[in-house]
Amino acid sequence: MECAVQYLSFFVVRGEGENSEKGYKHYQTLAEIEYTNSALKDFLDGEFARVIKRKVERNPKTEQAPTKIGRFIVEPGHGLDSNPNYNLFARLRGAASKEEFRRHSEDLVRTYINTSAIRGGALIVARTQLTKYFDEPFAFVLKCDFEPKIATVTDERSLISQVEMAISAKNMKSIQYPYMPEEGMLEEWELKIHQASHARYFEDFLKFVEYDQSLPEMMNTQVMGMVQEYIETVYEEESQERQQEEEAMEIWAASEKRELQQKWSNEQVVEAAAALVEQRPDLEMKLKLDHITVKALLADFGDSIHIAKLGDRYVVLIEGDGFEFEKGVSPIELLQPDELEDVIGRIKQKQGEPSAHETDETDDAPPF
User: Fold this and answer.
1) DSSP secondary structure of 135-185
2) How far are the Cα atoms of 221, 250, 255 from residue 228, in angstroms, in the given order?
3) Residues facing residue 306 across a β-bridge
4) Angstrom distance (rounded) from CA 161 to CA 159
5) Vertex 197, ends 195 and 199: CA angle to 5°?
6) Is the pLDDT of residue 355 over 60?
7) Is 364 a residue whose pLDDT tops 70?
8) Three-state secondary structure string covering 278-302
């Protein structure tokens, strides 16, 4: 994927956190021919294509996904040009000269350095064109951190030269506008951000951009909607019982570690899970019974994964047609499995209950 750089502005930003002194310095703005003859070309040539090709999910599987699709927020009845963040990128894409591109790049950098989580480094603003697909240009923002104390071998006399600051493409943060969902297709309402760190530089910077929920967030929202619907059906409006139940469910949903609530029947849970799976078949289910972790698809619950009680203990039943073991031989692979009834008997024995087999023997024993 060949990207032709039309304009590029190179800045160094300083400042880390809210209390540090923040600022920036503009080093150079290059037009197409100047970029082609510069050292930056070797450093960046593959980065633009790499940013565009980077995979992203609309509903990532984790809330901390480094790559996200953002959508510009506008009030109902208003166009994209009512969004300040969109206007930043639109001006970069529409710049008619190198000087105009520099001015718009500085506007973007000034906005960026006012975010709370920035760290010092190089900030590169570029306008490129994918000549194979589009006449419309892309706008890119690339943030590279500094790597101090880098030594390079020079010649026989000095041997090494100390470089105070060097920039690296490792963990480069990026913004791409517009987003390209497929080759040859542009989405002008959306951009793609990548920030491979815990600090949410670009989400803080792009205050008028929203992101789709992650799968855990989406599931949480929908499950809580189902819970509220259930509460409205079971409890009278404004009753004390309803208020207590709503408070209890809010505490449960906000807890880091949650226990089995034992409120809904198996059929109700299967029905609720099916409604979620219908929208997203790839939803995951994770649970932990004591120290044992079970990871599966939500669609597996009620089909091949079952939760039951046996006396005072919980039991997770997993059914399937065949086992597959990872590398590393274990004695478990030699097992001739017992019948389920025999296993249940052993569990009951651990709880001090007689197994069905023992009960039968006792019933058949002659009286004394």
Assistant:
1) SSPEEEEEEEEB--SEEEE--TTT-EEEES--B-STT-EEEEESEEEETTE
2) 11, 10, 17
3) 317
4) 7
5) 90
6) no
7) no
8) HHCCCCEEEEEECCEEEEEEHHHEC
pTM assigned to the model = 0.73
Q: Using CA atoms in the order 334, 340, 342, 343, what is the torsion angle rounded to 10 degrees?
A: 70
Q: Which residue has the higher pLDDT, 285 or 162?
A: 285
Residue 153 has pLDDT above 70, yes or no: no
- Given a contact cutoff of 8 angstroms between Cβ atoms, the answer to whether 1 and 9 are in contact is no
64: confidence class by pLDDT, cuts 50, 70, 90: confident
- What is the residue whose two structure tokens read 């000269």? 97
Report whether 86 contacts 72 (CB < 8 A): yes
257 vs 252, residue with greater confidence = 252
Share of the chain above pLDDT 90, in %: 49
pLDDT at 4 over 80: yes
Cβ within 8 Å of residue 22, ≥6 positions away: 13, 14, 15, 113, 114, 118
At what angle are helices 356-364 and 340-350 packed, to 10 degrees?
80
pLDDT band at 357 (very low <50, low <70, confident <90, very high): low
**Using an 8 Å Cβ cutoff, are 210 and 71 in contact?**
yes
Residue 28: CB atoms within 10 A of its CB come to 13
Distance CA 271, CA 336 (A): 36
Residue type, 215: L
The answer on pLDDT for 66 being more than 70 is yes
Residue that the structure tokens 């990207």 belong to:
3
Using CA atoms, how far apart are residues 11 and 89, in angstroms rounded to an integer? 17
Reported as a single tens digit per residue, the pLDDT across 102-143 is: 999 999 999 998 887 777 888 999 999 887 777 789 999 999
Of 146, 179, 211, 174, residue with least CA distance to 44: 174
Q: Please, which residues have CB within 8 angstroms of residue 170's CB and are 6 or more apart in sequence?
A: 147
Distance (Å, whole) CA 72 – CA 196: 22
**Separation CA 264–CA 101 (nearest Å):** 60
How many other β-carbons are positioned within 10 Å of the β-carbon of residue 323?
9
